[in-house]
Structure formats: C-alpha cells, structure tokens
Write a structure and sequence with these properties.
Blueprint lengths: L6 E7 L4 E4 L5 E10 L6 E9 L6 H8 L5 E10 L2 E3 L2 E3 L2 E10 L31
C-alpha cells in the first residue's frame, strides 16, 4: 500500500535546532519552522523532529548544519498525537522529517555568480516573523 502521508513545507527556522538523545542513546533533533500562508499575513509555526536512521545521521546533520533564520524545505510525514490533561484532550501535530533541503553557505574565496546589487538584502527578523513569501 503506498504511503499517502507526505508533507512538504517551506519556511524559516525559528530557533536553533535542539539535538537530544533518548534513554537508549538514539539521537533526535527538534526544530520549529515558520510557514507563511497564501492568504493574509498569518504565519504557522510547525514543530518538526528528525531521527537518526542507522548510518544515516539526519538528526545530527540538521543540528550541525541548519541555523536559526535559514530558509528550509522539509519533506516528511504528519504525526498527530493525543493526550489528556486536566480533563481536556489535546492533539498536538508535528512533522517527522524524512528530508531537509536548504541552501548551503558559499565557500570562502568563491566568486558570486550574480552581480552585486546596491539594494540591501532583506533579512529574516525572528521577532517580527514577517515571512517573505
């Protein structure tokens, strides 16, 4: 049966990804991305988690290479958990990351392929969460 649970999100990393280890020593990384909506000025904050899988150290790779404010595309699966607290049911959602795509920093000494513009570059302001897309 094909897997029909696939999520693709593009947004900015809200805070530095947090690398942690389970009681059994398995690494996982939690991160949150800010994703703009197509309508209005609303932004959704999506919790995501990456796990190491065998020799594929995705959790450690993301923790070492992805920084706050970076634009990323996350491909993964939506997981909705359920718990009850003080008589109320809660259904927090998160994305289990299969792939994280981001622009790697340019190496020092390499020449830019585009001409430099006189216009100042627009930066991601985590306090304002004005996501430019």
């Amino acid at each position: 049966m094909p897997n029909h649970n696939q999520v693709v999100l593009t947004g900015h990393i809200v805070r530095r990804p947090e690398l942690s280890y389970s009681d059994k020593g398995s690494a996982y990384t939690n991160l949150t991305i800010a994703v703009g909506r197509d309508y209005g000025d609303d932004t959704d904050f999506i919790n995501c988690v990456a796990f190491n899988r065998g020799n594929f150290k995705l959790a450690e790779y993301i923790a070492d290479n992805v920084t706050k404010g970076k634009l990323v595309t996350i491909i993964g699966k939506l997981q909705i958990d359920q718990y009850e607290k003080e008589g109320q049911k809660h259904y927090p959602a998160k994305v289990i990351i299969d792939k994280c795509i981001y622009e790697k920093p340019k190496q020092q000494g390499s020449k830019p392929k585009q001409e430099k513009s006189d216009e100042p570059e627009e930066e991601f302001d985590p306090e304002n969460f004005d996501v430019p897309f």
